[in-house]
Amino acid sequence: MSKAEPAITPELVAQHGLKPDEYERFLGLLGRAPTFTELGICSAMWNEHCSYKSSKKWLKTLPTTGKRVICGPGENAGVIDIDDGQAIIFKMESHNHPSFIEPYQGSATGVGGILRDVFTMGARPIAALNALRFGEPSHPRTKHLVSGVVAGVGGYGNSFGVPTLGGEVNFHARYNGNNLVNAMAVGLADADKIFYSKAKGVGLPVVYLGAKTGRDGIHGATMASAEFDEKAAEKRPTVQVGDPFTEKCLLEACLELMASGAVIAIQDMGAAGLTCSAVEMGAKGDLGIELDLDKVPCREPGMTAYEMMLSESQERMLMVLKPEKEKEAEAIFVKWGLAFAVIGTTTDTLRFIIKHGGEVKADLPIKEMGDNAPEYDRPWVEPKKRARLAPESVPAPNDLGAALVKLMGSPDMCSRRWVWEQYDTLVQSNSAQIPGGDAGVVRINDKKGIAVTSDVTPRYVEADPFEGGKQAVAESWRNLTCVGAEPIAITDNLNFGNPERPEIMGQLVFALKGIGEACKAFDYPIVSGNVSLYNETMGQGILPTPTIGGVGLLPDLSKMMTSRFKQAGDVIILIGGHGQELGQSAYLRDVLGREEGAPPPVDLAREKKHGDFVRAAIHAGNVTAVHDLSDGGLAAAVIEMALPTSFGVKLEALDHVALFAEDQARYMISAKPDKAMTLLSAAQEQGVPAEIIGEVTAEATLKIGSAVALSISEIRRAHEGWFPEFMASA
Fold first, then answer.
1. CA angle, 695 as apex, 484 and 692 as ends, to 5°?
2. Which position among 16, 95, 610, 719 bears the catalytic label?
3. How do residues 272-316 score in pLDDT, each as one tens digit?
4. Please, which residues have CB within 8 angstroms of residue 445's CB and are 6 or more apart in sequence?
5. Among this protein's residues, is 97 annotated catalytic?
6. Catalytic residue, candidates 16, 49, 610, 627
7. Assigned CATH for 65-194+430-541+549-560
8. Which of 609, 610, 533 is nearest to 574 (CA)?
9. Does domain 1-57+197-372 have CATH number 3.30.70.100?
10. Per-domain residue ranges for the chain?
């Protein structure tokens, strides 16, 4: 061992995130003390972020196959068939910890990382989404984090050239010490030209591609696998720095290289950088990998083997190449101004060997570092169920009109225009629906399109992880249905606190049970995803936030639906019946200041029946607008359908329970009067509750019986005003 390397002490082991029993296991595998570089490699591969050691047992219970699934979990991203020889490749990942420490670069490199996951499989990215959670608006760090994260997401995505078509932004005190940044990317590829990370063949060149390696991001994956304390700011050097223009060149070079037939296997350097990419490629292919770090392109002098192996410098790939194509491949990368270097070879030894400066710095069993990493069955306790909140126990507001204005202008219900107008939503010229509706839509060709959405209601999951998990899947399914898409598959991003606490592990277990049940009921498999644990600071965990990213197919774009009202005189039809569930509702929280009760239960059979009915009505041309009922209930849905238009709404007399209840499996539809009876008759035949509750008016007012007569412009001012006013305030 080099004299410059520190001695391996219990303190050093603990600093690397390895528990004593894990270190003993590592020693048993080696039969000797590790080198400093070997300790770093083990800490990277066995941390939560890379190994999924706390969640793997439960992830195996999820449905991951289906009629359109080409590739499920285990690769860089999931792959689904969309007919005509085409495939969609998509995934969602977290960059929570880095974004809290350094919001701009943390969120920017989160976008860059998820884009690489998609194009490393041979897809050209065609859409991006993001789901963001911040602390309460009054917290001193919230505005800084919102500003930096949104700028980072936009700065990277806009420069790279991918339209951002959807997402979420929410606020809650439980995110004060740990905001969430979940980034999703969607790409288009030929179904017979998908590239995988499994290495094949012995004695083949292992090639480094892309940007040069620096010292940024060292220990990034380890940092993301631990909770924060009062010294969180000191972790700033673990945050990577991104360059979207280099990534754009990397995309074009990789796609050109793939078309040349040179690629055998390819893996992006994400978490744990060169270590994780090399180990995963070798372990999947039952091969060994030998690397010579003297050949790694570095942008900083004097980098050690430890630093090179753990650097998370961005815009880098690792590839196994056909030897006869080496010169052709190198010419492509030189043309794009990127590094190209043969840094190793595949072997039949099942060993991961690292050489630097003529010395062997690491000699490890590759399978045990990769797909045979530790796996735990952590203790868990079943979450306590909260009592249902009887509707009669929730008082009506003193002023219904004022309550509606307050609700629609609250931090969680107001317009996100301030956010998404910082994103390029139209680049590539294929955006058929931009943010502001139920789902984003991107054209694949003149005929068909893809719908994308991101959904979860964390307060529901906190109150009942099982029902909240079901609801997150159901809402994504509804949002795709609202635009007329056939929901195909999902990706997930499971954001939870410390899994070593049995109550947190119980949240994860029951949320996954709910997610799994919903996916099975809808034939809506999970094809990719990410688990982000230890999201807590000083023992305070986030709200459990299993974000669901859904993708659906619109075989006929001419039948795509939007949520805004189209013309005065259309009737407004409620699908799914009047609600009674006010527990955990936006009204309860934002108007009455209470967070209580059980969330609305999710009847999956009812969800499917109602969604299938709505989709059929859209395809038959019987509706003019569709919107699902979620946060804010019936009142919010109707207002949101009117706000982007010059129209108003006249509703029958409804009490506060009917207006604000958040019962699931419900939709708001508008239809021409001559189509209304057709819809109602079909609903009755199929056992779907449907009734006319109002009409679209030429006068831009909201009228509810004789109790409310509000100007739509007054509601719009509150709805559109909160975000810009908050961000502009001192």
1. 70
2. 95
3. 889 999 999 999 999 999 999 999 999 999 999 999 999 989 999
4. none
5. no
6. 49
7. 3.30.1330.10
8. 610
9. no
10. 1-57+197-372, 65-194+430-541+549-560, 561-730
